[in-house]
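Section handout 9: paired folding examples.
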Amino acid sequence: MQPKLVNYVKMKRGLVLEGGAMRGLFTCGIIDVMMEAGIEPDGIIGVSAGAAFGCNYKSRQPGRAIRYNKRFAQDKRFCSWLSWLKTGNLYNAEFGYHIIPTKYDIFDNQTFDSNPMDFYAVCTDVETGKPVYKKLAKATPETYDWIRASASMPLVSKVVELEGKKVLDGGVADSIPLAYFEHIGFERNVVILTQPEGYVKEHNPLMPLMRIALREYPLMIEAMDKRHLMYNQELEYVRQAESEGRCLVIRPKEKLPIGHISHDSDEMQRVYDIGVETGRRYLDELIRFYKPDNIVLNMSNIKIELAGETNVGLVRQNNEDNYMITSLEDYGALMTVADGMGGANAGEVASAIAIETIKRIYAPDRLKGMERNDSNILTFMEEAIKEANLNINNRSKTDESTRGMGTTIVMAWIINDKAYVCWCGDSRCYVLNQRNRLIQLSKDHSLVQELVDKGQLEPELMHDHPLSNVITRCLGNAGEASIDTKIYQLQDGDIIMLCSDGLCGVCPDDIILKTMTSSQEHLMECKNQLIDIALSAGGFDNITITLAKVSFQTK
């Protein structure tokens, strides 16, 4: 049988929000249900109303969008032709985007800023007709204006000038930015559309007016003239991604009973309620899609159950950890954890390169025909790590922003009745056996471990030592990969755990042991509880955990 590779490589979960003006209240209902259920995507990209309403997800304010839209539905300061005549904007820029969020329905800037969720607003550059994808990390007045620009409909809005660009409604250039989100690493996406299945966009009948209003921007006119073609192509892309299981698409069952503009608060509530009902109907599917079940590998004599998760923690803005849990069918199972380090996002780059290299090397054609003896298996693992190290160093040489980056790595390959472990750095491998003993299989490559080995530091004081984060080996950093290995004879019921120091650096082994023994019957619950104890201990670092439970099967 050809080995089948199933990978979870810190799969980033995205949420793609189409615009649609007041149809966006349908989206509001869905995302409010998601927020209340505690569903936290890693990133959101919103277009037009999708950005204007979706920003409340990052600020964790369910109900806010429908609340202020209803409250100001008939307020001429919010949306009126009077505002358009006076300011050039149907939706008043100052009142809608600066007064309401700071005075009448306060936008939670602090939560928006501290939430590690990525948030992007899509605009269209009127001078080029191309999309602008603006990442908004902090809630500033400029952020409010980028969101306003994303939702600024041509004809009824003035061109917005921001950071040297002239921008308008993002839906003109990229109405459903699923392809872009996949391109930047969001592999598992929920897409919320505001038109029903079967909708086909037609050529804009207002193009003669658009040509007059936007006569200074010929490339914008061209983009608008072809918008229906772009939109329908993106719909087809979404359908293809949906059929391949890459995304979960949520649409209204039928055309929503609201226009682009509405001053009827009851009408707004009805559309919002349709979204709420739809969100509740999809809730179980959303949870399953974003949090896939653990992998179970059944072989002739062994069953291997795998689970893994990474968490940014409570202090850091970026997650520099990466991981992979992989079923290789006849070739067993592989787990890998990498904890990156370096300035800016370089640590995340290093750990990602390491995991992607391992993933590529463990492709079926590379494994086919390999003799499964101890020497071959360990050599294969060591060569994979060395190639990862080479790729990290090569990237550092060509990309100055990643100069000096590095990552730890720990791997466990479970094949036949053994666990083969390789590591470099202080990410750890443990085994919990059926006698409820927690055994550390790896040995940290760290300064405090060297002090312990020399008898200069008691093991129980390692966590609190001021130099506990100093490692003596890693991949990258322009150095050679110095790797240690171990072979462990598995017993029925053993649980192998790999983790970054976001867990083992803050939780003593006795706490980890207590947590694992109390939940070992359910691997996903065990993983969740381990994440919880690391967060309870302060969540000072990124936390990554992979687990493999081994059961021997008798014929």
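Moving on to protein 2 of 2.
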Amino acid sequence: MVTTAVGCGSIRATSGTGGSNQSGGAAGVAGAGGTVGSAGDGGATSRGGSTGSGGATSTGGSSAGGSTSSAGSTGSGGSAGGTGGTSVSTCGFTSKPISWTVPSCQYLRGTSSTTQQGGPAYSTLDMNGDGKPDLVIADTLSGCLTTARTQWLVYLGNGNGFATTPTSWTVPSYGACAFNQGTSGSAGAATSVGYSTLDMNGDGKPEMVVTADSSTCATTVNPGEWLVYAGPCQ
């Protein structure tokens, strides 16, 4: 680069080598992100000319080297093979029964009955928490067994029958009302109580749960409460 000294008040001009100082002359229209031209010493700096938008962008147009194929749809490989059939466990009852000793009465309604038609009102329930069902006689009209108003007769189960001698099981006294419909009953009749026997505290032994009573009963069950009597057998 050549610098020429001039007199006072004259203009000091600086020229680039071979003319105006631009990188390669006037810049063309560059695409987006074009190269910025380098400036000469003291000369006007060119930024590579006006910047074009790079042309219209085609959305989803063909790619370089030709349009791109999706390589075709992919098959699922066919349905899966069968499971080989359903596995079924073999269960059932033995062909020969076990003789189960029970008190001498008629038990016409399976393992529980809430009525005294032809036999006692009874239920089978584990009363002492040993995991074996016991036979509970709550009332009888047939004369085969005798129960008081405030007791049940419980024949404890031993795994192959019931005891021949019953355990006297005390039930709450409700005056003229009685717990005589097995281990659960409804309060529909004038002298009946709505009750169930159920383990309420998780100790493995059932409690007596009274949910309703009749107007003739000595004890009143108020709205919003149940009366729960813990089991006496330890």
